[in-house]
Structures are given as structure tokens and as C-alpha cells.
């Protein structure tokens, strides 16, 4: 098979979207992280809910993780 006739790979996300995805995802992640910290500080052991803690922490981790990936892609560190 001739390599020159193969189609070039194009990623699913346009590189011009990396900055806005980075700022948006990291911003949402920081928002959920702040919500988690405020929830932990202001609630006592009788009003805490494990399900709520897990959901908010998972959302914060997911958004911060994806935001970090797009940050690395934005600065040219291809992962």
C-alpha cells in the first residue's frame, strides 16, 4: 500500500478551539471544586451526603482533567 495515497489523519477537535475549551473546562472544574470545598466546610456530619460528595467531586475531577488535557494541547505538548 502506497503511503502517499493514504488520507491524512485529522483530530476530532479543531486546534483553534483549544484555548476556549481550556478556559471553559478548567473554569467549570474550579467552580465544582469550590462548591465541594464549601460543602465540606459548611456541613456537619449529620447533614452530609456521600452521594452528593461523590457526584460533585467526580464532576470537578472530570472537568479539570479534560481542561488540563486541552491546556497541554494548547501549549504544544501533544498527549
UniProtKB/TrEMBL annotation:
UniProt protein name: Dolichyl-diphosphooligosaccharide-protein glycosyltransferase subunit TMEM258
InterPro entries: TMEM258/Ost5
GO terms classed as biological process: protein N-linked glycosylation; response to endoplasmic reticulum stress
Keyword Transcription: no
Pfam families per the UniProt record, alphabetical: Ost5 (PF05251)
MF terms (GO), sorted A to Z: oligosaccharyltransferase complex binding
Organism: Pristionchus pacificus
Keywords carried by this UniProt record: Membrane, Transmembrane, Transmembrane helix
Membrane topology: Multi-pass membrane protein
Summary of subunit composition and partner proteins: Component of the oligosaccharyltransferase (OST) complex.
Signal sequence interval, chain numbering: none
Family: Belongs to the OST5 family.
